[in-house]
Amino acid sequence: MPQLRERAEGPARPRSVHADDFARIFGIETEYGVSATGAGVECPSQEVASAMFRPVVSRSRSSNAYLANGARLYLDVGSHPEYATAEARDPRTAMIQDAAGEALMRSLAMQAQEALRTRHGAGLQVHLYKNNVDSAGHAFGCHENYLVRRQVSLDAVERQLLPFLITRQLISGAGRVDPRGFQLSQRAAFLEEGVSSSTTRDRPMVNTRDEPHADPDQFRRLHVIIGDSNRIQYATMTKLALTHLVLCVIEYGVRTGTPTGFEACALCDPSAGNRAVSADTGCADARLELEDSMGFRECEQRFLDDDGDDDDTQAPASRHADDNGPTAVRMQEHYWRVVRRFVREHGEEIDRDTPGFDARETCRAWRGLLDDVIAGDIDALADRVDWAAKRRLLTRMECRLPQGGGRAALQRLDMDYHDLANGSVFASLQRHGLVGELATRQEVLAALHEPPHDTRAWLRGAFVARALDASLPFSCDWTHMALGAHGQAGDMRAQATLLDPFDTTGDAEYRALMEQLDH
């Protein structure tokens, strides 16, 4: 297994004030699929993507642009528009940033549709898919990013976090009509490795490429590839929130040298387990083969003996110990119990370090989701979980189709659910109150123009906005910004590096850079 670089070159930097707390940076990178229908002349996806990015290139002189709201917008390999959110300090802000990305992409798609109609006819429709598999079976990603402490080893990620991420699809999967039947996850069939530095050849569930976008001596960026793109905002926020809590437990264990409760959760074959969980639409049959089944049962029993808070319910239906391996639900319940106990002791600290976060309420919400999964109550899950919302729709449609037929109709409904530009299915669910929106229209509009105020994105966004308004050439990435033509060092008038993602004030170098924008 490849190991990340453990030491940065150059002199040691001051120890971060967040080195030993629960503060985190969150981000989501979403690749979108595009296509066009109804054209009089063939309109390939490359032409659609190019038309979408024409306004971006016109303003930023590049199809790889950092925006005034702190985000990154670029055209990825395979003509996939991609939006990477600005850095966020909490799951809800990250969800709102992701919703702003949807709004921006939808606007670009509709502008492209109008432009393309002049060439391809008034019947052309642009389709913008926030999903992970196109109609031809090509996969693309939704990547979650979490800032974690450098002491957390890749071994801990693989053995302690990966089983959680694999079974998390019970409540965060987007669902998919697959040739083999309905799947909980869109990504599971395409992931071959657990932890790897590869991104395309042998797609891993967690990518180990060492790009921390922070002080590499103190932090690493956990690049999670296993997750689906969610349409339901609750699912987006919840997957970030639950992963945050699990990471808090792991980091604390590393920091203090104490057991986490996840040590015996490691799977023998993560890829096989991931596919098995995805195919288990009843969420009760697939069994996970563990490296240490006895150790897991012993650890599980220690947490089962915990009576819990008065407001926390137990779920005896899934508590069965056998030699066939735990189900995904049982694994999720173990993670929930460990986290719940940890939150009792450290919940106030987690909330203090994570703005607007409520660790205890997150645990209660997690418990409620698991109870509905155990009960098989699709209707109860459908307003919060994408695969359940989609499964309910598909089941009702399937009842009206001829027996053994209609798969193409089900696949069209599946794709329509994810179409942000001209889809009708998800919008209808929203109009009828069957799925909710957590982010208000005002919050999304604000996130389209302003970065989060409590991360480095605020500084980068201010620089980009002023450079664009002044029509000055500049270069920018997550940690570095400079004025002047790219690649022409002699023309650079000022530059700055922002290595601390929690920084909201900037140093003398940054202030000098901003002063240059006034000259």
UniProtKB/TrEMBL annotation:
InterPro entries: Pup_ligase/deamidase. Its EC number is 6.3.2.-. GO terms for molecular function: ATP binding; ligase activity. One of its GO terms (cellular component) is proteasome complex. It is an enzyme of class 6 (ligase). Residues 200-214 have a biased composition (Basic and acidic residues). Keywords: Ligase, Proteasome. It comes from the Bacteria. Residues 193-214, 303-326 are annotated as: Disordered. One of its GO terms (biological process) is protein pupylation. This is Proteasome accessory factor A.
